[in-house]
């Protein structure tokens, strides 16, 4: 049984081998994330090649997301990790130094964006190690001094956040430009842009695609991004609820309601939304998830997220396959009580959206075995996915790049490419593809949607109900057509 909510698994040292990727696909992974905060282009190239080989070996369609690192603020190198205690003082230098302990309660460090220190004010907070350690600013000179308020261990290159400080940094760095160029060259499906603050950032990212039709995901992890969410959604092909940095930039108790709001707005706009960060974090070391983590995944599914993401759990965890299987099982069980009717009355996005809404409602009302959709751009599948139908969405595409991108869409099952201009042959190839995979019910009912003229993006305008007799006809279309010709000739000579 296919789940409808998709799993995005981050690949890393524990999971980027060909053998492990194949196991993750079998366990239920639909997409793979390449985290460009770590690793060289050569490292990621090997991983990418393994993904594509695994797709061939398993005859499965999976999507590839390249996560662009962005201007992540980090401490510099340390001589050794700092075991910080409440009351200790840490000084941030405005030049590059090797961090060290200068006295029993006195530490010095540098950061990779030293100009930020000029904007910091007394009584503002600095968060170290992605929010685990909090420090309050007590002095600002060219250097910034802050007093530690809770204990923790800080090591080299850990993240730093300044939630109270207005920071003007270019969202896309020189490194990011090189990484995006690598992604375009390698035809990855999705690019996740980090630390987005406005639509301008997404427009800049799209310029760097140089006409390539890769899809852009805006990572929502800054306070400004939440404030500007409408314009960001309008400029993006999807969003990611990046709860790690977001949980530092906004009060922690606001994260659940912001997550629900982002899922709701993405669903309404008809773009995929990814819920990310620490979903099954304890499984990085443990065999079983906590009850709270299980509920976290389930609630994201019930809210309507298209994708749930695994980070370190699958990248560096003890048992990545077990993590994906666990998430897969949580999704399947939760979807048994999913409210498909909740989206019946959503407003249409455009005039063609009427077709997609009608198809999904018709399929559910008739209890059809499946919806068959051939798409040129992927838009018709995306719009049908928006209505969250109970009926499986078997989707075909005119090209392989569109097909792999469909793996991100809720409820969509990408099957194969079809390059056929004649409608009858097109339907025949769809049905035969399902038969080959063992999922065609010849005595069932299918709703087929195609567009005329064929192959033109946005032209989906026809609905066809395939009854058992019509399924039989199309499955044997060539033979039926020859028989019809013979009968016409015989009639002519009688």
From TrEMBL:
UniProt cross-references to NCBIfam families, sorted A to Z: PRK05826.1, PRK06354.1, pyruv_kin
Ranges where the Pyruvate kinase C-terminal domain occurs: 355-466
GO molecular function: ATP binding; kinase activity; magnesium ion binding; potassium ion binding; pyruvate kinase activity
Family: Belongs to the pyruvate kinase family.
InterPro entries noted in UniProt: Pyr_Knase, Pyrv/PenolPyrv_kinase-like_dom, Pyrv_kinase-like_dom_sf, Pyrv_Knase-like_insert_dom_sf, Pyrv_Knase_brl, Pyrv_Knase_C, Pyrv_Knase_C_sf, Pyrv_Knase_insert_dom_sf
Domain Pyruvate kinase barrel, chain residue ranges per copy: 3-324
Pathway(s) it belongs to: Carbohydrate degradation; glycolysis; pyruvate from D-glyceraldehyde 3-phosphate: step 5/5
Assigned keywords, A-Z: ATP-binding, Glycolysis, Kinase, Magnesium, Metal-binding, Nucleotide-binding, Pyruvate, Transferase
Name of the protein in its database record: Pyruvate kinase
